[in-house]
Task: inverse folding
């Protein structure tokens, strides 16, 4: 399988003392990739236009919502690490961002989200039916673009990725409102987030003609980075402000999703505290239990710190995946990403 699931208990074996250093600054990263990122923005703008106006309108709405573009950045850096200079990196950078956008459209429908990045979500504006079909169109458009590479290996990787993400969404729906295990949670966030990060690095390596061992190192880097990214995202959902997040705080627990900090607390708290957390998960609402009360329980058991430490462990594992590569500007740029992921505030 081109996008394998995470090793059970990985974080328990990841030391937290490994320094992440020798990276470059965020502005330097985007200067290094400036032309390619500009080309990707043009490609996304062109490739999300349809002769069916509502699809174009939804695509434009999503593009204007902004985004970090971290997935295309990773793919570009992965290709550049092997001195790749063709058009494929821009083409596939557009592909992975369009796939990511399609997942956001479907996620917002499933979660009944009203906002995305501080603006009304697409489903709020156009309705669920149109957005389901627009998301499907975006998936198919991404595969159509990828066909231009004329590389069956790339298509195989993208098909495996899409299957993993759809399976992850279905598994999450089955587990909503339940106090799941940490291993189940790690499997979910791998499928929903880390698999795409891993695929971005793998695609860059494939374009660059990497050896099997080099490709697997790139995939491991992306996998661990994606796990760190999602764990941080889940912590921010509990602790950041709505202004910073661009969406309501504590959305995950309100939607019945038990994330790492919540699972950590559930494994340690008193029965009365567990009942409070489970009430929110099961009812998918803060009825008689407040967000500050849940936060107080998480803080009492060091659950937010435990989740942050796990994210840091995954980030350090990502940096170690690069140990076999010689020092270069591109490698230093890749070393920047774990720092960015674990220190971000939104």
Result:
């Amino acid at each position: 399988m081109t996008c394998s699931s995470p090793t059970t208990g990985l974080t328990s074996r990841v030391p937290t003392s490994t320094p992440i250093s020798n990276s470059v600054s965020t502005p330097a990263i985007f200067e290094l990739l400036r032309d390619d990122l500009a080309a990707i923005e043009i490609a996304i703008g062109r490739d999300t236009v349809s002769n069916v106006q509502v699809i174009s309108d939804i695509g434009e709405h999503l593009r204007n919502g902004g985004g970090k573009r971290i997935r295309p950045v990773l793919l570009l850096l992965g290709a550049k690490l092997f001195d790749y200079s063709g058009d494929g990196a821009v083409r596939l950078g557009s592909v992975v961002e369009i796939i990511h956008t399609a997942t956001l459209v479907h996620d917002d429908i499933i979660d009944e989200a009203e906002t995305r990045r501080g603006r009304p979500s697409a489903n709020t504006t156009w309705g669920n039916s149109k957005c389901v079909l627009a998301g499907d169109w975006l998936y198919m458009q991404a595969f159509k673009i990828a066909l231009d590479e004329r590389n069956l290996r790339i298509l195989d990787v993208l098909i495996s990725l899409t299957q993993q993400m759809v399976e992850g969404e279905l598994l999450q729906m089955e587990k909503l409102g339940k106090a799941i295990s940490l291993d189940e949670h790690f499997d979910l966030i791998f499928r929903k987030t880390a698999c795409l990060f891993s695929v971005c690095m793998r695609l860059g390596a494939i374009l660059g003609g990497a050896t099997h061992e080099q490709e697997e190192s790139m995939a491991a880097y992306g996998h661990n980075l994606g796990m760190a990214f999602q764990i941080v995202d889940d912590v921010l959902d509990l602790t950041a402000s709505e202004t910073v997040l661009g969406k309501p705080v504590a959305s995950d627990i309100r939607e019945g999703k038990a994330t790492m900090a919540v699972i950590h607390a559930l494994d340690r708290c008193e029965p009365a505290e567990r009942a409070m957390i489970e009430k929110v998960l099961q009812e998918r609402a803060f009825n008689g239990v407040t967000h500050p009360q849940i936060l107080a329980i998480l803080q009492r058991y060091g659950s937010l710190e435990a989740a942050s430490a796990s994210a840091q462990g995954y980030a350090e594992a990502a940096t170690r995946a690069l140990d076999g590569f010689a020092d270069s500007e591109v490698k230093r740029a890749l070393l920047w990403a774990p720092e960015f992921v674990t220190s971000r505030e939104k």
Notes: The CA atoms of residues 92 and 146 lie 6 Å apart. The chain has one domain: 25-343.
